[in-house]
Amino acid sequence: MSGQLIINGIVNASLIAPPAIAFSLLFGILRFPNFAIGAYVTVGAFIAYALNVGAGMPMWIAGLGAMAGTAVVVWLSDVLVFKPMRGHTPVTLLVVSIALALIIEHIIRLFYGADVRGFDLPLERPIKFAGLRITGEQIDIIVMTIVIGIAIHLLLQYTRIGKAMRATADNETLAEVRGINTSYVIAFTWFICGALFGLTGVFAGLDLVIEPLVGWYLTIPIFAAAILGGIGSPYGAMLGALLVGLAEELTVLVLPSSYKIGVGFVIIAVLLLIRPHGLLGQPEIKK
Amino acid sequence: MAEDLLEAENVCVGYGRGDIVHGVDVSVSAGRIATIIGPNGAGKSTMIKTIAGVLTRREGSIRIDGREIGGKPASEIARCGVAYVPQEANVFRQLTVTENLQMGSWIEPKEFDARYEKVCALFPILKERAKVRAGNLSGGQRQMVAFGMALMVEPKVLLLDEPSAGLSPAMVEQMFDIIKQVNKTGIAVLMVEQNAMQALKISDHGYVMAAGQVAMSAPASELLDSSEVSELYLGTRQ
After folding, report:
1. For residue A128, what is the DSSP state?
2. Nearest CB to B95: which of A167, A180, A182?
3. Does residue B124 belong to any structural domain of this protein?
4. Which end of chain A, N or C, is more open, meaning fewer C-beta atoms within 10 Å of its C-beta?
């Protein structure tokens, strides 16, 4: 029983990890919690749905298309909404991002209604091993999340643009003074994060269902993972996702499963009380 | 007349509505050091930030090597050979010391190895603490990272905002020695300093700024001898 819960938890964590990394990267540069991330995930799910079911493309092409399409949508949300508002307080931007999330959600409803949908995939039996079940799609999600985690690590640590991303997140003025074109770096960060949100939409469509609120349900666990790991720290976000993913599933042992959705909130609340900079984050040192 | 490497003419700049700097002229030629002194709020840091492009001038002309840079973004001004060291937040705290130095040679990454050896010869501590995050260093060591990063640019013009701030007296001396040493290689240095006396001693020229204007511009030795300057700004009486 609990072995199955751990498997479910790992799948759950793999779903949360890429958007938590993306949320963390965006927060590092923009310094406000972007509540539109759930809507971005939904956009990814519906682009993949349109390509897979609407246009009849194979799932992997639909997935890549969703990543590219969501990257563009997410980047446009910066160009049209957040960039003109840069310099406003984080609270203002937070409210703006909630408004943006509602607008995106309703645009999707306009085209697709509120129906629950799924991808057009051949039915497969779950793989059974020692009484545990896992589907082929869930294995794909876990493997791809691990690959993404490693890729993001390599990007940030060893590539020129990755170092520029870290430098810009750390001290934008100084990065600019040293010759880094920070507006280019910020646009690139939005693109990368957009692709991660798009991919999450595909994962959500595979593991959950496709509907206009699918991303919204993931928002709180994503926030919890990013805050738990230490906001602004992509490695922390990976660790946070694993812990939140497992915690959500394992509470089923002691509480009815309808309380699962509250786990993220509890983690956020407790953490903000005892360790506001998260597990791997650096506390702000004031001189 | 030889063209000055850095020439700022009639620069006006401010935050929000009002101007903080009203029509300031500053110039430095290659291999010379100029220092701006003056009371707090005189607009010294604002002036140096404007030359670096962190703030944008409202009026006036700023030229490097005869090329107009006024109004350009900071990243482009950096590419004209200007290295600015802010007074605060002058290192990337989350990056290691070596990564900070890499950011210094961002524009010319191929030059990193050669410049790294030169800079570490000036500040051996940067090599010892290569893998430490800059945010975990002491204030003095951070100042060396900041200065080392600027030298990694191999700039034509070095802009320093309070290079001695937060340093122990012995390190202040060392810092000024290094500025002098670097300057001898032909770099034009413009700095803002509270430590006016020591700064003027290594400078060729001095500006006294007050209320957003240049109140006095004279060779550094003259300012050091002037009784008015020493009473008002150097804290010494004759």
Report:
1. E
2. A167
3. no
4. C
Structural domain count of chain B: 1
Hey, of B84, B97, B106, which one would you mutate to test binding to chain A, going by the most A CBs within 10 A of its CB?
B106
CATH code of the domain covering residue B205? 3.40.50.300
Residue B143 lies in a domain: no
CB nearest to B92's CB, from A174, A176, A179 = A174
Q: Which residues of B touch A177 (CB under 8 A)?
A: 52-54, 74-75, 78, 84, 86
Window 263-282 of A, Cβ < 8 Å to B: 282
Where does residue B123 fall: left (phi above 0), alpha (psi -120 to 50 degrees), or beta otherwise?
A: beta
Whether B106 is covered by a domain: the verdict is no
Inform me whether the pLDDT recorded for B1 exceeds 60: no
Q: Is residue A133 within a helix (H) or strand (E), and if so which, with residue range?
A: strand A132-134
Model pTM score: 0.90
Q: What is the pLDDT of residues B153-196, one digit of tens each?
A: 999 999 999 998 888 888 899 899 999 999 999 999 999 998 88
Write out the residue range of the structural domain in which residue B197 sits.
1-81+156-163+188-238
| pLDDT tens readout for residues A68-127 | 999 999 999 999 999 999 889 999 999 999 999 999 999 999 999 989 999 998 888 889
State residue B234's pLDDT score: 67
> What is the identity of the amino acid at B78?
A
Backbone angles phi, psi at B57, to 5 degrees: -70, 145
Q: Does B130 fall in a domain?
A: no
> What does chain B look like in DSSP terms, one character per residue?
-PPPSEEEEEEEE-SSSS-SEEEEEEEE-TT-EEEEE--TTSSHHHHHHHHHTSS--SEEEEEETTEE-TTS-HHHHHHTTEEEE-SSS-S-TTSBHHHHHHHHTSS-GGGHHHHHHHHHHH-THHHHTTTSBGGGS-HHHHHHHHHHHHHTT--SEEEEESTTTT--HHHHHHHHHHHHHHHHTT-EEEEE-S-HHHHHHH-SEEEEEETTEEEEEEEHHHHHH-HHHIIIII----
